[in-house]
DUF485 domain-containing protein (Streptomyces griseicoloratus), 181 residues
Amino acid sequence: MSYDPSPSYPPPSYRPPYPPPSNRPAPSYPPPPYPSGPHPSPPPYGTHPWQPAGPGPLPDPGPGPGHPGLGEPRAPRRAALGHHSDLRILRSAYRWQRRTATLTALGYFTLFLILSAYAPGFMTGDGAGGLPTGMLLALLQLPVTWLAIGLYEYTARRHVDPLADRIRKEAELDARREAGR
């Protein structure tokens, strides 16, 4: 097989992607409708947080809509939905729940790996039923995983779900109070 350098089809014609330059002068555009120079005066406040304030303090806008005047007392506000301490307690209970279940499963698996690497004599020794100890520990991985799942559900029912239910009920109560206003 040989290479034929002459193409059997006509070569494509080349066209530049843009028209060739002409000798026309550049078009002139009208000036923009906004001032093109620097601002006549800087704003009375810093435009960035690290900049100091301008020449003086900003004027007080006074009481506006939704703001009580000087003599009007504010209505006492109840703690908002999901008070921080409630959510903090819920987060810590959920965190404890995750750690307990995770450390149960991963702790057993890590123990299995460490014994496999550093105690091969123990892992190859005879266990119950003539099976090697390593095989028995490997077969126990599935029940330990089930135990971790059960522990996760138990801690959810005992610690996390009651807190979440209480916060949910408070949210429903707050929603009803807001709808009644």
The chain has a mean pLDDT of 76.
